[in-house]
Design a protein that fits this description.
The protein is an alpha+beta fold and about 300 residues long. The protein contains 8 helices and 12 strands. It has 3 domains: about 5-70 and about 120-160, no CATH class; about 75-115, no CATH class; about 170-295, no CATH class. The two termini are about 25 Å apart.
Length: about 300
């Protein structure tokens, strides 16, 4: 279900029940772009457009889905139309078009072209683990996750949350695993990583399909580079790429977990529930393991970097 997992600690117990949450999300239900709108963002049914519910609860977890629709208006097309409009004015009126007028013309052309532009939609799933106190967003980038969380903030009014602030620097610990060891027994090194120079952000080494404990890799670490992304496996339950901000990418369930699901069940809703229940339960345990390794908890006196 989730290919990525970006983690946000809920700073207080989530008190809304699914019915209350459904009502509030309904105030920001997704609607398609109007003729003159470049983008809309709202809540969509997590079970797909054939259903109507905006909240899907399984156990202590509440699954939500944000949908964003954008009008695709290439900047090159606007620039070409602008050049033609400017050339026409300068030819017909024998005068130069200034910067302020060009800006107004660009805005006018954009408004004229928007209704004819194609649209593209993107769905972003997230769930609230009300028992463990985490929000988990299936977003490949921080910007995408922040956009969805901002929508949740605007919808609910208040929900304090913050990304992990680990006590142990992930890049340092992951570098130590490769350089000195030992790797925890339930953690398996993959064959891909990204190294970055601590003093020069342009100094990046990306490797894939290699032995990460080879002498070549170790020499990069001895020269001062740090591991900022590392492919890992955990207890034969998940494989993923762990980044220095503790986000998970290329998240995949292990074969043993997949076999636990009943593929013979013809009820699509029951299969969905089973997969989500399994995913959320196992991710809860993985997050707890990351907490033990890196110390994700933040003292009560610490102010969160942002609030929902």
């Amino acid at each position: 279900m989730f290919k990525n997992a970006r983690l946000y600690r809920l700073d207080a117990a989530f008190s809304l029940d699914p019915l209350e949450l459904e009502t509030q999300l309904g105030e920001r239900r997704f609607r398609p772009c109007g003729p003159l709108e470049s983008m809309t963002l709202g809540w969509a049914p997590p079970l797909g457009e054939d259903s109507s519910g905006l909240v899907h609860g399984v156990g202590d977890c509440l699954l939500l889905c944000a949908r964003k629709q954008e009008r695709l208006l290439p900047s090159a097309a606007v620039a070409e139309a602008l050049d033609e409009r400017v050339a026409e004015i300068e030819s017909n009126e024998s005068r130069d078009v200034g910067r302020a007028e060009r800006r107004r013309l660009r805005e006018q052309i954009t408004q004229e072209m928007l209704p004819r532009a194609f649209t593209r939609s993107r769905r972003t799933q997230l769930y609230l683990d009300t028992r463990a106190g985490w929000a988990v967003v299936d977003a490949a980038s921080e910007k995408q996750a922040d956009e969805v969380l901002s929508l949740l903030r605007e919808t609910l009014g208040s929900l304090p949350a913050y990304p992990p602030a680990p006590a142990t620097t992930p890049a340092s610990l992951m570098s130590q695993w490769l350089l000195d060891g030992p790797v925890p027994g339930d953690i398996i090194l993959g064959d891909a990583c990204e190294l970055r120079d601590a003093e020069d952000s342009a100094g990046v080494v990306r490797v894939s399909g290699q032995d990460l404990t080879s002498e070549e890799m170790l020499n990069h670490l001895r020269a001062g580079k740090r591991v900022v992304k590392l492919a890992l496996g955990w207890d034969e339950r998940f494989s993923f790429v762990l980044a220095e901000d503790l986000s998970l990418k290329r998240l995949r369930m292990g074969e043993a977990l997949i076999e636990e699901m009943d593929d013979d069940n013809d009820d699509a809703r029951a299969r969905f529930d089973a997969e989500f229940a399994l995913l959320s339960l196992q991710l809860r345990e993985l997050i707890a393991r990351l907490d033990a390794l890196f110390g994700l908890s933040v003292p009560e006196s610490a102010a969160p970097p942002f609030s929902l």
